[in-house]
Write a structure and sequence with these properties.
Number of domains: 2
Distance between the termini: 34 Å
Strand content: 5-15%
Number of strands: 6
Number of helices: 7
Structural class: alpha+beta
Length: 213
Amino acid sequence: MKTFSKPYKYADYLDQETICRIVEWIVDIEYRPKSIDLQLFQFDPNGFSVENCKKFISVGFNPKWQLYNYADKAAKSRNSNWQRKLGEKYDELDDSFWFSPNQLTCGDDCLPDCNDKNNKFEFGAGLRVSKVDPIGSGGFGTVFMAKFHKKKVAAKYIEVSKSYRENICKYVAGESPQKIVAKLFGETAHEVQVYLSGQLRRRFLVWTNFGTR
């Protein structure tokens, strides 16, 4: 095995006794996942016993998130299978999460209790912006009223589930970030590229939010 942090990727060729020892070790050291990779992989419940799945869940892994790798029919099938296998423990998991591909930092004018800082790829549960206060919509997404750094802002939601699945989850090493962003965001890619280049900071935030499917 190459690294302890991704033991679930080696389940196909490790014997069950070894898998159980690895899972126990992760629980014993109180390991907690804080970031997520672009492929959204956590662990596949099909490769582990119910007991080991529940142990992974107990330390913060969430297999629901990788359902976004699959088209609706395949995702629903896997979701139903995992639900039957894991029962209430699975039902209690968050369906939605978000992360930012960029470091989210505070400016000099932020108050000490501002909690909008976040490390790149560090995930948060739920929706980054609640979809309860829409202020406009168009061909490229819906805009909602939000609050960041304790200031009111407009947050644009762009539907990219299919694009993410095709261009990010199937990412080929070596492809430039600019090309990936262009594929993912289509005609709105220019806005994102300007932000990621560092030309805009406080008024334009980029994060990836995966909501209940």
